[in-house]
Design a protein that fits this description.
Elements (H helix, E strand, L loop, with lengths): L3 H23 L7 H21 L5 H25 L6 H27 L4 H12 L8
Helix pairs in contact: 1-2, 1-3, 2-4, 3-4
Length: about 140
């Protein structure tokens, strides 16, 4: 079992921060502090690294706990990116945020497919078992 509590904590913190940024951006009086956006993006990096590190130990139960939160964070980050794109003072964050969103979406997809669905797929399990029994040294390359 992975460190679900730690992952959920990261997701919750990012969710609160990104939602807060969205609400303040909606206000015409909002003035962005570059440091706040940088901290948010650093937190997203830490979350991605944690998910990468824990990938192999994530179970279906873990994903049931943090998967819905992760989807909310991804959609909130997408909305934050969309709202920040017209702002000239935030342009240099756009590519980094786009890449982070893509990374989180890929991680979410991979966790769902390989850690939740794949263990239930009997045909895939049989194929993987046969592949692991192959002696790759005897194959012509």
């Amino acid at each position: 079992m992975c460190q679900t509590a730690v992952i959920s904590h990261h997701i919750g913190r990012i969710g609160r921060r990104s939602f807060d940024r969205r609400m303040r951006m909606a206000s015409p009086l909002f003035t962005e502090k570059r440091g706040e956006m940088a901290r948010l993006l650093n937190d997203v990096d830490r979350l991605s690294n944690r998910l990468h590190d824990e990938f192999i130990s994530i179970t279906e139960e873990d994903y049931r706990m943090f998967g819905p939160e992760l989807k909310i964070v991804i959609s909130t980050l997408k909305a934050l990116r969309r709202e920040s794109q017209p702002r000239a003072d935030l342009k240099h964050y756009d590519e980094r945020m786009r890449q982070q969103i893509a990374d989180l979406e890929e991680l979410d997809h991979d966790i769902y497919v390989f850690r939740v669905k794949a263990p239930k797929n009997k045909e895939l399990q049989e194929a993987m078992s046969k592949i692991s029994k192959l002696d790759l040294a005897k194959l012509p390359f």
